[in-house]
Here is the input.
Amino acid sequence: MTDASSLPLVSVICLCYNHERFIAEALDSVLAQTYPNLEIIIMNDCSTDNSVAIIQEYVRQYPQLTFMSTGTNLGNTRAFNMAWRASKGDYIIDFATDDVLLPERVAQQVAAFEKLDDSYGVVYSDAEYIDDNGRHVKFHCQRNKAGEVVSFVPSGDIFEHLLSRYFICPPTMMMKRQVFEDLQGYDEALAYEDFDFWVRSSRRYKYFFLDAITTRRRLHAHSLSKQLYKPGDRQLNSTVLVCEKAAKLVQNSEERQALSRRLQYEARHAYLTGHYRQAEQFLDLLRQHAGLGPVYHTIHFLSKLKVDLRFIRALYQKLLNR
Here is the structure.
């Protein structure tokens, strides 16, 4: 039998903000991992519901848990960095306590990492999306009736791919500690971390796609992803900043084209949701980077005038949901 302490240590950083309804299931899923060498850190980001009482009961029952709490609500990036800097793991999982880990998750990803060379920094996988009540919604990757992934999911050098499209389900990632050391953690100036982490880390490290469903990601009204493009959304400002970083990192024509597609996409959606200033910022960057064609010159002009065409996007979404 293998001594658990001889295996790589995996730090699961459990971020909680007002997850009283889901946190027990989330923590149970971490405690149920088949992988024996875990460091479990629960970081409460100043929850105002009953989350702390639930966490304290778990800490009483399971003394191996480490409980940390912020004095004020810091947001995901700062709260995670506090916990990551206190952790000791060779590998890191950023785990929101409204999601669920499947029992083999950690073991599968460590096994994948141990077969890869040092150029790989992240292992990610497929996920099942669930609703508030834990009911199946869909899988992240497109699969056929036999359960086989039929959509292209990149591995290796993915920098170009992630510039142009979204394909990683963030909670499925396991990351080498060295990646965070090199990046000095998440950028705390940002409202969300995923896109920035992908851009900066994939320029230095390869990613490996593990063809397995390892995580259940919960979709509910208070999810950060549900706030995207809503009035006052801070995530768009962060996306502008990340695109500016990406523009400084591109190295060839294929990567420039990929970034152009990203900027066009973000500009369209920002404009059609009434975020005119951010639409102008995306288009200004596109103009500097690749130039504006007639369509995007028009969108830039309409953004400056604040011509409201939000009804077009609303109509499109209504047609999609029929």
